[in-house]
Write a structure and sequence with these properties.
Blueprint lengths: L2 E2 L3 H6 L3 H10 L7 H20 L15 H15 L7 E4 L3 E2 L5 E3 L3 E5 L4 E7 L14 H14 L5 E10 L4 E9 L1 H19 L9 H4 L11 H15 L10 H30 L4 H4 L15 H9 L5 H5 L6 H12 L3 H11 L19
Parallel strand pairs: 1-4, 6-7
Antiparallel strand pairs: 2-5, 3-4, 5-6, 7-8
Helix pairs in contact: 3-4, 5-6, 8-9
The structure holds iron/sulfur cluster.
Amino acid sequence: MYLRASSVERVSLCSGSLAADSRARHAGADDETKAAMQGTLDHATVAGLLEERFLAHRPLLASHDDVEWDVRFAIRTIAEQMCAYDHLPESGAIEQKLYSATTPVGGSPDFWMYYPELHIVEAFDWKMGWVGNMTLARGNLQLRAYAVLIHEAVDDPEATVFFHLVVPNRSAKRERVTSVRYTPASIAKARIQLEGIAHRARVKTAKRCPSTKACEWCRANGTAFCPESIEYVKETNALMRASADVMPTVTNADLGLLLGRIAQVEKAKKAIQAEMIARLRAGADPAECGYMLQEGKGARKITDAPAALERMSALGGTLREWLEACTVSRGNLLKRYKRVTGAKGVTAEENLSVLLKGLEARGNDTTKLVPITI
Ligand code: SF4
């Protein structure tokens, strides 16, 4: 089973979706939204214009009256790119179906032009019906798959593929173009990555992992081919309803589901934060990540309490007065107590409580929720 370039991102997030989406498609599930239908129409318009102009070696008109503004922008971007070289492209293709002979991937890149003397391919993808969040060329798995296909199609091991992603920004009435460069080395890396995604998706035990991003364009979403997605929507709905004023109406079962979801998220939080910090430190683009690093923002901690107290009490006042400004960690006291007395475990705990009687109190929150398995 080939991976369609347009679904590589989804399959990378949910390996089980390769089979589930295919089963749903064969069963006649239709995922064409109004925005997607408009996008298909716009793509056809650009393809028609490109065929008429580009293939006939006539200049592309950036101000064709019959086309919508975002289609015009896409064409203008292409025209500008074509003018960047003195050479004419020798070959190119508009929405040509490509299949790789070596990597299990296939798809139809919107448009590409090949300049053999320069060993350069200029490729374009446009998101005409786009209504969701802004997407960027860098890190885009669909473009990566197209780059592999185009590189193979031009049969030039030295070729570098420049990919431009044209996304109309309807509110600002202008497009946004982001670009990414695929050298022969990065194409080789992309192949390995795609093979890994395909391999994980083809095994019988491939798991279905619902998430908003993965399920959005999956035909199996909400169908019997993916019970997990139905469950996910149920849990998410419960989460959405969980604001204080509607809390009394949330069922006991939904509350349980919510707590489970929160526990999962909290477990993942530290690992995700650490990974994001590492990537940003390694040079990841903050605009792409949606986060930036702000150094020196952590809470300060006294590392040598006795020395700090000495210095402070030299200013005046009694040691007791200065000690009143300090918080003593019970955990640290227990460690010290064990070391001094040799007591262990529960005995050490109990003895310390006796010793500190009247000097310690539990916080207000004395009840803990503990998950049960039935
Ligand atoms: S609906 Fe979501 S969880 Fe189910 S197969 Fe598709 S992407 Fe995976």
